[in-house]
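Re: How this chain folds, sequence and tokenised backbone to follow
How to read it: Take the token row as a discrete description of the fold.
Start of record: The labelled sequence and token lines come straight after this line.
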Amino acid sequence: MKILQLTYSTLLSLAMALMVHAESPSSTSATQEEPIIVGEVEPVGIVEAGTHFEARIDTGAETCSIHAENIEAFERDGKKWVRFQLINPTTKEPILLERPQVRRVKIKHQEGEFERRMVVKLRAAFGEEIRPTEFTLTDRSLYQYPLLVGRNLLHGTAIVDVSRKNTLEKPDLWATDTKDNAPKSSGGKN
């Protein structure tokens, strides 16, 4: 019963805040887009891989994370790069990618152990937007979802309602977005 009261109170507060926000002319502008409401699991497209992944939405994670195999650092033109494989969720075939290394991070696990991960930028198709997003590369084979969406993709884009799932359609990986970050594709869609 207490949970129902809390849920009702939360929904009532949210509804009142939205009504106040909608009536305030100074709170919106023609160029500002409203955040989308997403559930705890949503489809996210990775443009470079040409496919979509079911992703767990995690507001506790600062940075997005994606399952990668055979992660290998190398140098190209004196700069740090990373070669890695993503696994196509439909065909289970490996997708070989090479991206510049953005940085390395140290992740602390619940057990207190630390793990070093490489970070790369990938174009994430989320909702109706495609935008460059940092992803840590890690082994997520023991998890149900190969991709974890962190706050870096959610910020200013989405509000999370954990009682919902799959509120978004699979995004068009070849759509042109407002930031002109869409790929110049000559290949087919997956």
About this structure: The CA atoms of residues 131 and 181 lie 6 Å apart. DSSP finds two helices and eleven strands in the chain. The radius of gyration is 19 Å. The domain at 37-68+102-183 is CATH 2.40.70.10 (Cathepsin D, subunit A; domain 1).
